[in-house]
Amino acid sequence: KCKLVATEHWSELDKNEITSLVRFLGEKTYPYVDTLITVSESLKRNISLFFNKDSVVIHNLIDAEYLKSPVSNNDDICKIVCVGSLVRRKGFDFLIKAIYESKIYDKNFMLRIIGNGPERNNLQNLILSCGLEDKIQILGQMSKQDIYGYLHESDFFILPSRHENFSVAVLEALANGLPVIATICGGIRECIDDNNGILVDVDDINGMASALQLMYENRGKY
Question: pTM value?
Answer without folding.
Answer: 0.88
